[in-house]
Structure formats: structure tokens, C-alpha cells
Amino acid sequence: MFRPLPLVRLLSTLLISGSLLGAVAAYAADAQSGWPKEIRIGYQKGNSLVILKSSGDLEKILGSHGVTVKWYEFPFGPPMVEAINAGDIDLGFVGSTPPVFAQAGSAPDIRYVGYTAAYAENYGIVVPKTSTARSVRDLKGKRIAVARGSAGQYLLLKALEKNGLKPEDVSFAYLQYSEARLALERGDVAAWVVPDPRLADIEASSGARVLISASGLPANYGFYIAPRKFAVDYPAVLRATLKEIDQTEQYARKHLEDTAKFLEKDTGVKQQVWRQVLSRQPWGVSFPLTPQVIAAQQEVADTFYRYQLLPKPVRVGDAIVDIN
Predict the structure, then answer these.
(1) Residue among 51, 30, 31 nearest 41 (CA)
(2) Is 14's pLDDT higher than 60?
(3) What is the phi/psi pair of residue 102, to 5°?
(4) What is the chain's mean pLDDT, rounded?
(5) What residues have CB less than 8 Å from 297, skipping those under 6 apart?
(6) For the packed helices 177-186 and 198-206, what is the interaxial angle rounded to 10 degrees?
(7) What tens digit of pLDDT does each residue of 207-258 get?
(8) Among residues 229, 214, 5, which one has the least CA distance to residue 113?
(9) Which of 92, 147, 200, 253 might form a disulfide with 42, Cβ 3.0–4.6 angstroms?
């Protein structure tokens, strides 16, 4: 089974580089800020958290501070946001839009604590292989499948803007992923806004073509979020956790074949599809949010408000906790 870089190897590396004393000192400093008895982490299938969960490495690192790790699986982002806002879990990973909707009223207690690299070739607008469309402009008057309130909806709005179109120039078909795929294959919609691994899967299975990917649109990030009180009270455990997630991603990036095998077992998606996904996956977890990331996320909020998809304007900066 695939396992990310174990703690023993990390410690060996530190010893060789002569930095072990510095690492111990850093952990000692963290201890002064307090550690919780447990951290409850929400995750979804097919991402870095699943790999980290299987390795047991986070349990070893946090166990040295008396912290128990508990894992809770969620089918998608919005229920995870609700659980975080209710204080039922302490950390989760979501796309750009759930925090915006949360801040606008549905779950105002959530806080941004970290972020991932922006979407690139791993999110796009696809059309069937036989489609005559060659650009987003060619979708005028057509139905486009997209998940309501998703990062894909933001990308679609920006793709329309880039091509001189307005939302009313197309018809939004709000469908979940399984429904959207069937609709595209039946010809009920002309295009579908979809992320990996579903994007890579439909490309491989049907020859679907990408009209435009996220790399050609304004930056759109994924975020690690936590309840306000937990983020303020326990920054040390969040730092340690996010650092370990980043290390897991860096190890996965260097061992794509093993990672693809592991994810095939976890999700049922074929290994060759995961190879394509991983080859274009933006890697890395960082904190705190930079001005560039905050500005990009503010544009997400402003865009949704401008198109009357949010009940009120929000200021992203009000929902950020610097855990450094």
C-alpha cells in the first residue's frame, strides 16, 4: 500500500542535515501555545487527506503532543462546511465557493487557515467529441451542466465574461456530477464544467474535448478551513497538520505510480485515469493566505454577489486566521 514519507525517515533527514535540534525547539515552542486533546478532520475520497489517513503518520506526530486524530468522511463540500460551523469537526478541505457562501450567512463561523495551489488543467469545460463547438462563444444559446454553487460555476461565469457572453446568453443546467455526465452523453447538454478525476475519466472514456481550462481563467484556489474558536485556540496543531499534508503531497508528486495504485483502490477509478490526473495536479499546501490568494478569493465572492448568487457582499479578509 502506498505510504507517504514516514516520520522516521523525516527524522533521519533532519539528523543528517543537523536541523533536529531546531525542529525539537520548534515543537517545544508550539507546545507553549496549547494542544487540544483531539483533532477531528473531514475528508473526501480521492485527495491528499485520504493518503495521509492511510499512512498513520499524522497520528504519530500529533500523538507526541497527546493529540488524538479522528477522521470523518463527507460526500462533498457543503455538508463539511456545516459540520465545521457547528463545531462537529475541526479541519476540512473545500473548494473556493463553500467558504464564500458560508461567510454570506449559512455558516459564518468558519475560518480560512491554509490553501492549495490554484486549479489549472485539472478543471475545465468539456464538450462531446462530436461537438462542433471550438470556443466558449460557440456555446451561446446552449445548455451547460454545472454544479450549483461550485468552483465550476465560478469558472463558468469567468469563461463567459472572457468570451463576451453574459449568464443569460446560455442556460445553466444545475446537475450533480453523475447526472451531468449522463446528460452530456445523451446530448441533453452541450457542455459540462467538471474537475478531475471526472474530467480525466470522461476524456479517456469518450474523447470529450476541453474548450477552456482553469489555467486560462482567474486563479481559483482550494482551502483548508476550521471553526473560528479552534483556529484561534490551537494554531500549533493546525500548523503541524497542514505541514504534514504538504509533505504527503510532495511525496505523492515524486511517486505518481504508487499514488495512482492507492487512489484506484480508494475510489474505484482506474489507475490510468489517476495517472493523467496526477500528471497535471497542482501540488502543495501553504499558510497563511497571501495577499494574492486573498484577492483571488475576494474576486470569487464579488463575482457571485454581482450575479446575485450571494445574499450580501462579503469581505474575505474577515474570515482569515493566521496560524503562524
Answers:
(1) 51
(2) no
(3) -60, -45
(4) 90
(5) 96, 99, 100, 112, 221, 223, 289, 316
(6) 20
(7) 999 999 999 999 999 999 999 999 999 999 999 999 999 999 999 999 999 9
(8) 229
(9) 92
- Contact between 80 and 42 under an 8 Å Cβ cutoff? The reply is yes
Q: Name 261's Cβ contacts closer than 8 Å, sequence gap at least 6.
A: 2, 271
SS3 letters across 215-275: HHCCCCCCEEEEEHHHHHHCHHHHHHHHHHHHHHHHHHHHCHHHHHHHHHHHHCCCHHHHH
- Degrees, nearest 5: CA angle 81-295-226: 25
Task: Provide CB contacts within 8 A for 270, sequence distance 6+.
Answer: 201, 204, 264
Phi, psi of 143 (to 5 degrees): -90, 135
Rg (CA), the chain: 20
Q: Which three cell numbers stand for residue 260?
A: 495512482
d(CA 47, CA 25): 31
Which has the closest alpha carbon to 58: 291, 248, 259? 248
Number of H helices, E strands in the chain: 14, 11
The C-alpha atoms of residue 318 and residue 324 are separated, in whole angstroms, by 17
pTM: 0.87
Instruction: Considering only the C-alpha atoms of the chain, give the largest distance between any 2 of them, rounded to a whole number of Å.
Output: 64
Say if CB 194 and CB 177 are below 8 A apart.
yes
Q: Which residue has the cell 469518450?
A: 206
Neighbouring residues of 113: CB distance < 8 A, sequence distance ≥ 6: 91, 224, 225, 226, 231, 238, 242, 287, 288, 321, 323
